[in-house]
């Protein structure tokens, strides 16, 4: 649409900046997460201090990790919140811009072509919002960590089940919002 209207084509420098921010943010988050973990000796001291009745069971475990909720997780959370706000603003701008471009194209396209473009934009927006389901488990996990909920492991299992529904939900949204697929299933 932007090429038809000759406006709002994303600058390659801006696209490279976004790509750099995504990659560097991911690497920084990974590094902070790895740095936030305890060493083996610290883990055993933590278990002995907080869970003395389970100390012997933890000694028999070969591989486990304890991540205390400290400054690193607060920084990861703050960075994630900041990135979420930036990307929400960016995607909101893109969605608004697509609809304004679509409105400007109404008189330049045939009725059928305009309907196809409008259906494609609506389908993309619906799929974007369906993809937000992927964010529910991480946000739920962060909320559980902050609240220090006792039955967090059970809730995390439910969150993982919700996460597993993402592809099915996205397929359903695709079928419901794309006219050719919808027509195929209604016949």
TrEMBL record:
Pfam families assigned: 7TM_GPCR_Sri (PF10327)
Record has Transmembrane as a keyword: yes
Keywords for this protein: Membrane, Transmembrane, Transmembrane helix
Gene3D superfamilies in alphabetical order: Rhodopsin 7-helix transmembrane proteins (1.20.1070.10)
InterPro entries registered for this protein in UniProt: 7TM_GPCR_serpentine_rcpt_Sri (IPR019429)
UniProt keyword annotation of Nucleus present: no
Bilayer-spanning residue ranges: 12-36, 81-103, 124-146, 158-177
Matching PANTHER family: SERPENTINE RECEPTOR, CLASS I
Protein name as catalogued: Uncharacterized protein
């Amino acid at each position: 649409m932007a090429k038809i209207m000759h406006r709002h084509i994303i600058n390659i420098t801006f696209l490279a900046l976004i790509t750099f921010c995504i990659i560097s943010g991911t690497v920084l988050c990974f590094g902070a997460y790895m740095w936030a973990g305890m060493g083996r000796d610290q883990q055993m001291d933590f278990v002995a201090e907080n869970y003395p009745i389970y100390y012997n069971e933890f000694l028999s475990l070969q591989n486990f990790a304890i991540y205390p909720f400290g400054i690193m997780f607060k920084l990861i959370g703050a960075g994630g919140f900041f990135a979420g706000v930036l990307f929400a603003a960016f995607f909101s701008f893109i969605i608004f811009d697509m609809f304004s471009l679509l409105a400007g194209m109404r008189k330049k396209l045939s009725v059928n072509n305009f309907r196809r473009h409008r259906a494609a934009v609506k389908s993309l927006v619906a799929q974007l919002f369906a993809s937000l389901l992927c964010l529910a488990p991480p946000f739920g996990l962060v909320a559980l960590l902050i609240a220090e909920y006792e039955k967090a492991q059970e809730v995390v299992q439910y969150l993982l089940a919700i996460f597993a529904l993402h592809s099915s939900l996205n397929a359903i949204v695709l079928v419901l919002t794309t006219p050719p697929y919808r027509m195929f299933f209604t016949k």
